[in-house]
Amino acid sequence: MTALLGLGLLESMEAKGSLGKDGLAGLEHNSVEYLHTLIEALRLSFADTRYYVTDPDVVHVPVKELLSKPYLDSRVDGFALDKANDQVKHGYPVQSSDTVYFTTADAEGNACSFIASNYAGFGTGAIPAGCGFTLQNRGSGFTLEEGHPNELKGGKRPYHTIIPCMATRGKELFLSYGVMGGCECGVSRQV
Is 29 helix (H, G, I), strand (E, B) or coil? Predict the structure, then answer.
């Protein structure tokens, strides 16, 4: 959901002309403007998913509304190439550096998009006997705020931010990418 929102926000920025006449493709790769644009799109998408995305078996997740063109257009109204948006609402993504992401592809179009994450700090801090690694603590994606969509409840799945992805064009691999909780992003395109 975070990746879809981010891509939708980038599309809205381009449609509104916020990125110049050539859009994102016209910005120099890894330039300040290019990275700023990706970061701002991800800040907005994580702010929304951190609030709205929850266990759909327990609380309605407004997927259609979040991905609608009018909503996406409204979310990028404060975007500017030369400054950060100070109007991001619904919270911020968790800042951490406990996640590893990689993607790889071969000449035949086989690919792997892989994420390993303990989540926060050392995860739970629990180490299974003889294994040498800690267990993850994704349950910390819950909140104790009463009435919040991600309120802690028995049998409910928590919000989490691991998004290993692949995109195809027809039946062919086009893109292998991943997005993790701290707004890190990895992208690889088959050439």
Answer: coil
Is the full-model pTM beyond 0.70? Answer: no
Residue whose C-alpha is closest to residue 164's, from 142, 187, 182, 141: 187
The yes-or-no answer on residue 99 being catalytic is yes
Helices 2-15 and 32-52: angle between axes, nearest 10 degrees = 130
Sheet of 163-169, strand order: 163-169, 172-179, 185-189
Residue type for position 53: V
Catalytic residue among 2, 37, 49, 99: 99
pLDDT tens digits for 42-56?
888 988 888 888 888
The Cβ of residue 126 has, within 10 Å, a number of other Cβ atoms equal to 10
SS3 188: strand
| DSSP character at residue 135 | P
Question: Residue 105, SS3?
Answer: strand
